[in-house]
């Protein structure tokens, strides 16, 4: 099984994840050229070689209108924090400013608009318009929007405003769009069967942003990382940003230590900040990514269940349909008897961590239940792939499942039926040609 493993011993940011994936990309320079030509307004991404702690890695810079984002970040955050010393230690504030200092509630916008020297704010509608207008596939657009929505929802919770009331500084918004789109495009090109991420080091202490000093992890990051294994460690500072957290939350199939894996490629995505031990020894600030083949697959899933005794079978069936359409791994009902011998329905939904909150909302929306139970379980899973088999009657998709010493093949039933109708044959006649 083609497995991608993210090692986040020093947290993660969007640029670090993109840089790490560039290291294992077959043609990194060609990828940067493609990324720069998809139409992100005023954005140019530059790849550079970085040497940290004697380790060669990759870094990326996002230029907005030809200026590196750090210069914009300082200007915007300074204008919102009049008590900050202009000679502050930029290394201590960079990542937080990059992901956070660009967020404003709509009610506050009028109070600052004339102080910013003309720079503009961007709402989620504008961001959606930019993403939908990019020269990328519909699948990648959906991935980018989903990741950005995780960030917007987290920021809305942190600020106590709706998603549509949250506005981002235009520079910060385009910087995040570049990072997120780059990672989504790279994962689409690498096509891993499974993505595993280590426990995420988030750091500790406080971080300065435009609204004051916030605890680490910052509120938005903490919200995104609910249910994800994290630790504070001994490094003071913000190690994981909202962009990094959202990308990992969205794409990761399992948060676990590296299991048995034959590694073929290793990449280092270097952070822009530097960290040192109390003795003055530099700590490698990087995300390490490994690509390789793992054998048998195990993972953890979440089982959500509830007992229902005041819904018809038709309504329960509709609920299952909507839950499956919403991204559940599986959903089913079973007849049960409840108190006083009343017949009822047991609804069970199996999902992964990243879709759990969506599943909870769908269950409450489409059923009459007043409560949901949650159980985390491990499972053994066969790896899966799909190939096209050409026959004299037409193409048939064949699903292959393998692992634990077994291999199973199953033709797509819809293809068999279609070819049987088109050629006036029995389904078995088509199957015999596979």
What are the SSEs and their pairings?
Blueprint: E1 2-7, H1 14-23, H2 28-36, E2 43-52, E3 55-64, E4 67-68, H3 69-80, H4 90-100, E5 103-105, H5 106-112, E6 121-123, H6 124-132, H7 138-159, E7 166-169, H8 170-190, E8 194-197, E9 200-201, E10 206-209, E11 212-215, H9 219-224, E12 230-231, H10 242-251, E13 254-255, E14 262-270, E15 275-276, E16 282-283, E17 286-293, E18 297-308, H11 313-325, E19 330-337, E20 343-351, H12 356-366, E21 373-381, E22 383-391, E23 394-403, E24 406-411, H13 413-423, H14 427-431
Helix pairs in contact: 1-8, 1-10, 3-4, 6-7, 7-8, 7-10, 11-12
Describe this structure in words.
- Helix 6 packs antiparallel against helix 7, helix 7 crosses helix 8 and helix 7 packs across helix 10.
- The protein is built from 14 helices and 24 strands.
- About 12% of the residues have low confidence.
- By secondary structure, the chain is an alpha+beta fold.
Keywords:
4-stranded antiparallel β-sheet, 434 residues, 5-stranded mixed β-sheet, 24 strands, single chain, globular, 14 helices, alpha+beta
Binned, the helix content reads 25-40%
Q: Give the low-confidence spans.
A: 70-119
Number of H/I helices: 14
Overall pLDDT, averaged? 83
Silhouette: globular
Structural class: alpha+beta
Give, in spatial order, the strands making up the sheet with the most strands. Answer: 13-8-1-17-14
Main β-sheet description: 5 strands, mixed
Distance between the termini: 24 Å
Rg measurement, Å? 24 Å
Q: Beta-strand level of the residues, as a percent range?
A: 25-35%
Count of distinct strands? 24
């Amino acid at each position: 099984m083609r497995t991608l493993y993210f090692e986040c011993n020093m947290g993660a940011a969007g640029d670090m994840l993109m840089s790490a994936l560039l290291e294992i990309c077959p043609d990194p320079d060609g990828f940067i050229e493609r990324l720069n030509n998809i139409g992100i307004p005023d954005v140019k991404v530059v790849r550079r070689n970085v040497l940290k702690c004697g380790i060669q890695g990759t870094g990326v810079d996002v230029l907005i209108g030809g200026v590196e984002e750090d210069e914009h970040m300082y200007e915007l955050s300074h204008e919102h924090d009049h008590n900050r010393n202009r000679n502050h230690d930029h290394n201590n504030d960079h990542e937080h400013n990059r992901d956070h200092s660009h967020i404003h509630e709509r009610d506050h916008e009028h109070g600052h608009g004339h102080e910013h020297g003309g720079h503009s704010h961007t709402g989620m509608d504008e961001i959606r318009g930019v993403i939908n207008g990019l020269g990328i596939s519909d699948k990648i657009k959906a991935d980018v929007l989903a990741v950005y929505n995780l960030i917007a929802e987290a920021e809305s919770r942190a600020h106590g405003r709706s998603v549509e009331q949250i506005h981002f500084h235009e520079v910060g918004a385009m910087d995040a769009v570049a990072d997120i789109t780059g990672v989504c495009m790279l994962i689409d090109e690498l096509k891993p069967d499974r993505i595993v991420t280590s426990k995420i080091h988030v750091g500790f202490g406080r971080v300065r942003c435009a609204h004051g000093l916030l605890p680490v992890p910052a509120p938005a990051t903490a919200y995104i990382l609910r249910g994800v294994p994290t630790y504070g460690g001994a490094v003071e500072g913000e190690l994981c940003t909202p962009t990094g957290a959202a990308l990992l939350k969205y794409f990761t199939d399992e948060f676990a230590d590296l299991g048995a894996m034959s590694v073929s490629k290793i990449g280092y995505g270097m952070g822009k900040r530097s960290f040192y031990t109390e003795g003055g020894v530099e700590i490698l600030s990087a995300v390490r990514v490994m690509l390789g083949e793992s054998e048998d697959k195990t993972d953890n899933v979440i089982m959500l269940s509830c007992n229902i005794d005041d819904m018809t079978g038709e309504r329960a069936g509709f609920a299952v349909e909507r839950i499956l359409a919403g991204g559940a791994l599986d959903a089913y009902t079973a007849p049960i008897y409840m108190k006083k011998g009343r017949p009822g329905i047991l609804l069970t939904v199996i999902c992964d961590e990243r879709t759990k909150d969506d599943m909870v909302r769908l269950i409450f929306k489409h059923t009459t239940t007043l409560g949901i139970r949650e159980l985390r379980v491990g499972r053994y899973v066969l790896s899966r792939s799909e190939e096209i088999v050409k026959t004299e009657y037409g193409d048939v998709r064949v699903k292959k499942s393998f692992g634990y010493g077994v291999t199973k093949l199953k033709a797509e039933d819809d293809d068999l039926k279609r070819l049987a109708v088109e050629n006036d044959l029995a389904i078995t006649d088509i199957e015999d040609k596979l």
